[in-house]
Write a structure and sequence with these properties.
elongated, six-stranded antiparallel beta sheet
Length: 194
């Protein structure tokens, strides 16, 4: 054990002496050290502009999540009417193939209230569509901004998904061909796009 301690002491002593020598030589060449420091700062600034701002880059997961909120006390029928309108606006957007609305279900909070809803907006396949998910989301949000009945917004899902447990009181599935309203009696166990 004494040998190990003596070796580590010698190791740290040598490194401390090397560091002192490096600092002493650097202080003798202050101008050059300052120039190197400025180059490193400039390189850092350029790299901050080049690298994407988020930790995880934007991912096209082939769907959007739409959130609907009406004033407190709004009925389920009013919320369903707005969900149908949001689904229609989404379906009119180039690159969208399906929209599934869950009225009374808030996917963000995992709660059930009659004045909220969630719309899952599915895109066409990559080989069919020419637009990115961000372009489609911007187009849909521009259309949703004109709605007066309540607040609606669409956004891309997070890169790392965590599913909350919740039940929807009424589900509306819309496709280009047909529409149907069904009651959901149990929690969804699998999503159609997984």
């Amino acid at each position: 054990m004494a040998g190990c301690s003596a070796r580590s002491t010698v190791f740290f002593q040598r490194n401390a002496e090397r560091y002192e020598g490096l600092v002493g030589r650097s202080l003798g060449r202050r101008g050059m050290v300052f120039v190197v420091y400025l180059v490193l700062l400039a390189t850092t600034a350029v790299m901050f502009r080049q690298v994407p701002g988020g930790f995880i880059p934007t991912q096209d997961k082939t769907y959007l999540i739409g959130s609907i909120r009406l004033p407190e006390g709004a009925t389920l029928d009013r919320t369903e009417a707005l969900a149908r309108r949001v689904s229609d606006l989404a379906m009119e957007t180039e690159g969208v193939s399906h929209a599934a609305a869950f009225v009374g279900f808030n996917a963000l909070q995992g709660t059930n209230t009659p004045n909220v809803g969630t719309v899952f907006i599915l895109f066409d396949d990559f080989d069919v569509r020419e637009r990115t998910a961000l372009e489609i989301a911007d187009d849909i949000n521009a259309r949703l901004g004109a709605l007066k009945e309540g607040f609606a917004i669409s956004f891309m899902p997070p890169p790392c998904l965590v599913w909350a447990r919740a039940r929807a009181t009424r589900c509306t599935f819309r496709t280009a061909a047909a529409m149907a309203t069904v009651r959901c009696s149990r929690r969804p166990t699998a999503w159609p796009w997984r």
